[in-house]
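Lab manual, section 2.4: Encoding a predicted structure.

Procedure: take the sequence of the chain (255 residues), apply the prediction step described in section 2.3, and record the output as structure tokens. A sample record is shown.
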Amino acid sequence: MSPLYVGIDLAWKATNRTGVATVDRAGRLLASASVGDDDEIAAWLTQLPGVPRVVAVDAPLIVPNLTGQRTAERLIGRAYGRYGASAYPSSRANPMFDPPRAQTLADRFGWRVDPAAPLGPGPALCLEVYPHPALIGLFELPQRILYKKGRERQVGFLQLAGLLESIDELDLLGSARWSEIRATIADPRPGDLNRVEDEIDAIVCAHLAWLWEWRRHQLHVFGSADEGYIVAPPTPTHPGALVRQGLRKEGAGQE
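Recorded output:
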């Protein structure tokens, strides 16, 4: 079966919605959706027309520390804090990370979680990613896109959609589901933006999973498999806006 690259914008609680998406070997979006608990994630993965090769999850994956924050979160803060994309601290003191839901999923599917592991036959490689710094690094943005909340939220969604459509490999304009998402963004009813937010973040994650194999130089591992890590573009050098540092919360940085 064909290799696939999967993105999961994983809610920290199974009672909340999770975004899922997959792209093919060429990087083209094949499918995206919003699902619920782990069984729904498993059912969605089962119906895919191929085998996951790299899975990029926006949620804490390896959290060995009992208190405080991980080294990866400190490093992301240093690299992306001036762009408003710091990381929410995770530790085992938080019941949601003891154990992390992402780790439970990886164990369930037998996914490898060490970013140093080579790609090849066998189980997929699961990576922790973070869309906010990914977008800042890939598009050289002065600050994170403000699409999570606020009066100008729709403007942020329109900016995000335009940037994603500029990624040729995703071929979003050829996707029927993306057309539906675009229509929702253009004329949202109450609650609509919340319903598509995680799905869009999952598309970003799927693109990062694809980049891991085909354009690895565009990504960097902040941290390690021992202490926990976050995969994002290397530390940016372009100017960052002087904004209040945002905290990464459940569901891909919902501020």
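Check your result against the sample. The first strand starts at residue 3 and ends at 9.
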